[in-house]
Design goal:
Layout: H1 2-16, E1 33-37, H2 43-50, E2 58-62, H3 74-85, E3 90-96, H4 106-115, H5 120-128, H6 133-137, H7 143-155, E4 166-171, E5 178-180
Parallel strand pairs: 1-2, 1-3, 3-4
Antiparallel strand pairs: 4-5
Bound molecules: zinc ion.
Length: about 180
Amino acid sequence: MTLLNEILSFNEKFVAEKQYEEFITTKFPDKKIVILTCMDARLFELLPKAMNFKNGDVKIVKSAGAIINHPFGGIMRSLLVAVYELQAEEIYIIGHYDCGMSAIKPEVMLQKMIDRGISRETIDMLSYSGVELDEWLRGFEDVSESVKHSVDMVRNHPLMVKDVPVHGLVIDPATGRLTLVD
Ligand SMILES: [Zn+2]
């Protein structure tokens, strides 16, 4: 609990000293953009800085690998909410090189779950119930292909506004360089 305590005591000071004042803005993105990117820790500050965005400029949705797992899942819903309710007029899907999701092997991850106490019966039971764990956990081999696939899914989504531009990019997590892929 040390880290949690550290965070909470820092937070008390942060609020008491009104350090939040420099971040005050509205919930609407000033630049009318929503970004879907990866949860990779290297992108936390690098991505907004490399694109010249500050607090309040854009909405950022994150998922492992910037993957949209399901056309009617939480990630897609977030993009729809950004467009219909929060004034986003453009969508950027930004994967990155050296992504953890490109190394994910479902069978290895399932073994790790078993090693950490999830029973084989639970996994078998999910499989028998029709949950395709292998598919669900699978990452990608080529980040550009994966980004293109997500761009397609958003562009062709039956509930997405047809004239909202959807861009696909890949960012270098070391230098911040962006490459346009779609
Ligand atoms: Zn990643």
